[in-house]
Fold this protein.
Amino acid sequence: MKNFKIRIMCTILTVALGITTMVGCGSAEVNGDRTVLTVDGTEISLGTASLALRYAQAQTDMYYKQMAALYEGLGASGQDWEATPEGESQTSGELMKADIISRLEKMAVVKEHAAEYGVELGQSEKDRIAEAAKEFIESNDASVLRKMGVTQENVEEYLELETYYRDAYEPMIKDKDTSVTDEEAKQSTVTYTFLSKNKLGEEEAKAAMEELLEEYKKEDDIANFDMEAPTEGKDDGYMTSTASFGDDDDEEGTGFDQAAKDAARTLKDGELYQEVITGAGGGGFFIVRMDKVVDPEATEGKKESLEREKGREVFDEMVDKWVEEATVSVDEKVWQDVKLLNKEAYVVKVPETIPEPAAEEELAPAEEQ
């Protein structure tokens, strides 16, 4: 018997170990055979759109639940799909449905243009997709699939669109300029010690850090000593780590405090900042040492990241242009039959052979998913 892993496909309202399928709370069956989206010569069925929607819903809910595990209470019940976010006129569920249609439009035009870049599905790939779809259908309760409006043909259609979307990426950007210079990617690396003011209070925390800084200054080899060692055995919540950042990186982009970063930029290799730094976020205090003003390894990693980012931008621009030029039709009446509500609840088995959806912001055509 093949091994399967359980992925949640819709909002789970209860935790029940050993239960592999839970029928939706009052959900009506959906006829997924109808066409919901037409992009030039490509028709996409409602069942395929429903599957894509449920996958996206699951990813969002799992994110909220993961946040709940880290931060007590936050997102414990998942996304509130019936709430209207601030500044929006639609509910979260309606916004998600719109996003799915937009994504399917992009996938459809990529499939339409794929042959121009020598991308096509060979028989072995088609066989793999068919087998994966078959496993998916056989692994799940028929009543749940009917409520989702999903058939084997829908799963195959979805996987074909995903495959074209992935496989066309690299050929599409192959001849485009996605290069990044070393100067653009330049990264500095620091080692820092942080102490939150929440445990000791602001004055005590700062005093403790000033005492620690004096210990650091007594080290014979400032550039190479272990900054964590003097904090061992002190039950005050010290955290020592490293961070890399560039000239144009903001705090959000690196996860490193802006005030500590600004202080570090005044240092040369191996130098220790001579004062305790009050974090810009107000959460505590930093001691910072500049390890390398130009870190070759971190710079190379950043360069690769920026090149991937440029590649995605080029890819997105091409796809958006194709969508703009295409004849697109959405049957809103058909799409209304699939609703994204808090009360829905399904657990669906997904075989290992079903790939994760290609995230647009992390599209990596050569990667195994």
Summary: Residues 4-177+306-362 form a domain with the Triger factor/SurA peptide-binding fold fold (CATH 1.10.4030). Confidence is low (pLDDT under 50) at residues 1-26, 364-369.
